[in-house]
TrEMBL record:
<dbReference type="GO" id="GO:0008117">
    <property type="term" value="F:sphinganine-1-phosphate aldolase activity"/>
</dbReference>
<comment type="pathway">
    <text>Sphingolipid metabolism.</text>
</comment>
<keyword id="KW-0472">Membrane</keyword>
<feature type="modified residue" description="N6-(pyridoxal phosphate)lysine">
    <location>
        <position position="344"/>
    </location>
</feature>
<dbReference type="GO" id="GO:0005789">
    <property type="term" value="C:endoplasmic reticulum membrane"/>
</dbReference>
<protein>
    <recommendedName>
        <fullName>Sphingosine-1-phosphate lyase</fullName>
        <ecNumber>4.1.2.27</ecNumber>
    </recommendedName>
</protein>
<keyword id="KW-1133">Transmembrane helix</keyword>
<comment type="pathway">
    <text>Lipid metabolism; sphingolipid metabolism.</text>
</comment>
<keyword id="KW-0663">Pyridoxal phosphate</keyword>
<comment type="similarity">
    <text>Belongs to the group II decarboxylase family. Sphingosine-1-phosphate lyase subfamily.</text>
</comment>
<dbReference type="GO" id="GO:0019752">
    <property type="term" value="P:carboxylic acid metabolic process"/>
</dbReference>
<dbReference type="InterPro" id="IPR015421">
    <property type="entry name" value="PyrdxlP-dep_Trfase_major"/>
</dbReference>
<keyword id="KW-0443">Lipid metabolism</keyword>
<dbReference type="InterPro" id="IPR002129">
    <property type="entry name" value="PyrdxlP-dep_de-COase"/>
</dbReference>
<keyword id="KW-0812">Transmembrane</keyword>
<dbReference type="InterPro" id="IPR015422">
    <property type="entry name" value="PyrdxlP-dep_Trfase_small"/>
</dbReference>
<dbReference type="InterPro" id="IPR050477">
    <property type="entry name" value="GrpII_AminoAcid_Decarb"/>
</dbReference>
Length: 539
């Protein structure tokens, strides 16, 4: 003990003797500088761990290049050219925007002016991927029904439940009927499924992420939340992460283009609040392994959200029709929330979706309550305060009008046509279907031609398909609009492939060069800047 004390005394004396000649300011600053350096190294290491060494180096290199005189200006000029190309003909219409109220009202012209503007829209009947899910003319049949329902309640607002009790009941019934389709009647669901209507899939996803964040903070005290998603998960999760300050851990899909469960497991840590599984994913129409993700969520005590925005009003009926649909709903242990759109295959008016939770203990974290406002006590269930009651009524009317038999019939039609389109694409030389589509989205690529050049030819024929990346591909989301003209689609697609084979290279006015370059560009920051510039000049 005495020897240790003596050694410590000697070390102290030696240190004092060595430092005696140093500047006091340096002695104070050195530890602080060392701490700052350590923090910088830690931040750099974390950045590399998140984004990868290659991405970080490319970002740094591009930042350095932009410091060279003239380079930044050249890049800005080139970006402007690309933005103009992306806008195509929309810039001219923007120049003709009305910017002031008419001095005298023009009630007799309003409807005529609206019709004139509407007549300038592209022909969407049957030629758009997704977009419009209802069959027939917009002035007849189901269209006419939901439009009438909307007009009956266009003045109502669910915010005022004491006034518009009818709308409150309609919303409750839409939520309950949707929940019943997704396992609420199953014993495994726990019998407490609850939720709300929203303005669309993105709001449903935003609410589910915000709710999961706050629920996990109350449950585990997590203050630096992270969520795990597959790279095929919808971009709305990135939006939620930016809005709610959540770190995204993005996991590459496996060889079947599905969420990689082992990859998800490797990303779980003490800050993980939730994982996301899609049924199906938007890009390729494939259902992630929800059961396996549910087991993982249960094992680690974290939330699992299932994105059923596309599949919520198809998969329950496809399963009843005998299609091999894997488990995807609240009957799966570990699923804590589900988003599903009524305005897609539910055939309701645009702007209607639902977000559902396994129990009320979770959903309570969705609400915003304000007690100190001079305007009184305030509570709101969703992101919007005022909401259009007409949309709630339109969704209710769609579901009640169709019933189980109507949804089974429409699902049977689109599933059958989807399989025919899948087979037709497989039969076209040079094309291949990506994965094994579970539902009504068929994605396809090519090992023989530039698929984006094929898309340009299809666009010239009036088709509006979705361009995908990683791998470069296209997809068609099959709706009732396609059931009568799918053969025309396959013929046009085969002709387009043949055209590109015979005359490879971009066509005048085509978007293939931009899509191709964006996919290959290593600096994703520049691509992001392009998108922001395009949006800023478009709205």
């Amino acid at each position: 003990m005495e020897a240790a004390a003596e050694l410590a005394q000697r070390l102290r004396a030696a240190a004092n003797e060595r430092l005696a000649g140093q500047e006091p300011l340096l002695l104070v600053a050195a530890p602080l500088l060392a701490l700052l350096a350590a923090r910088a190294v830690h931040a750099a290491a974390a950045d590399v761990a998140d984004r990868g060494l290659r991405t970080v180096l490319i970002t740094l290199a591009m930042a350095a290049v932009k410091l060279v005189p003239g380079v930044s200006g050249y890049i800005a000029a080139e970006k402007s050219k690309v933005v103009e190309k992306l806008q195509s003909g929309s810039a001219s219409s923007k120049k003709n925007l009305r910017t002031e109220l008419p001095a005298v009202g023009i009630p007799d012209r309003v409807i005529g002016d609206l019709q004139a503007l509407k007549d300038k829209d592209v022909r969407w009947q049957g030629k758009c991927s997704g977009t419009v899910y209802i069959a027939g003319s917009e002035s007849e049949g189901h269209f006419s029904l939901i439009n009438k329902a909307y007009s009956m309640f266009s003045h109502t607002n669910p915010l005022h439940q004491d006034v518009f009790k009818s709308v409150a009941q309609l919303e409750a019934e839409v939520v309950a009927m949707t929940a019943a389709l997704l396992g609420s009647k199953e014993k495994a669901s726990g019998g407490q499924i609850c939720g709300n209507m929203t303005s669309g899939g993105t709001e449903s996803i935003l609410l589910a992420v915000k709710t999961s964040r706050d629920y996990m903070q109350s449950k585990k005290g997590i203050t630096k939340p992270e969520m795990i998603i597959a790279e095929s998960a919808h971009s709305a999760y990135d939006k939620a992460a930016q809005y709610f300050n959540i770190k995204v851990r993005r996991v590459p899909v496996n060889k079947e283009f599905l969420a990689d469960v082992k990859g998800f497991k490797r990303c779980i840590n003490g800050n993980t609040i939730m994982m996301v599984g899609s049924a199906p994913g938007f890009p390729h129409g494939l259902i992630d392994p929800i059961e396996e993700l549910g087991e993982l969520a249960s094992q680690y005590g974290i939330c699992l959200h299932v994105d059923l925005c596309l599949g919520g009003f198809v998969l329950p009926f496809a399963r009843k029709l005998g299609y091999p649909i894997p488990p995807f709903d609240f009957s799966v242990k570990g699923v804590t929330s589900i988003s599903t759109d009524v305005h897609k295959y539910g055939l309701a008016p645009k702007g209607t979706s639902t977000v559902l939770y396994r129990n009320h203990a979770i959903r309570k974290h969705q609400f915003v309550a304000v007690t100190e406002w001079t305007g009184g006590l305030y509570i709101s269930p969703t992101m919007a305060g005022s909401r259009p009651g007409g949309l709630v009524a339109g969704a209710w009317a769609a579901m009640m009008s169709l019933g189980l038999n109507g949804y089974l019939e429409s699902t049977g039609k689109i599933m059958e046509v989807s399989k025919k389109i899948q087979k037709g694409i497989d039969d076209i030389s040079g094309l291949f279907v990506i994965g094994k589509p579970d539902m009504t989205v068929v994605a396809f690529g090519s090992d023989a031609v530039d698929i984006f050049e094929v898309n340009d030819i299809m666009s010239s024929k009036g088709w509006h398909l979705n361009a995908l990346q990683r791998p470069n591909s296209l997809h068609i989301c099959v709706t009732l609009q396609h059931t009568a003209i799918y053969e025309e689609f396959l013929k046009d697609l085969e002709d387009s492939v043949d055209t590109v084979k015979a005359n490879p290279g971009p066509i005048s006015g085509g978007m293939a060069p931009i899509y191709g370059a964006a996919g290959k560009m290593p600096d994703r920051g520049t691509v992001k800047e392009l998108l922001v510039e395009f949006m800023d000049s478009s709205c």
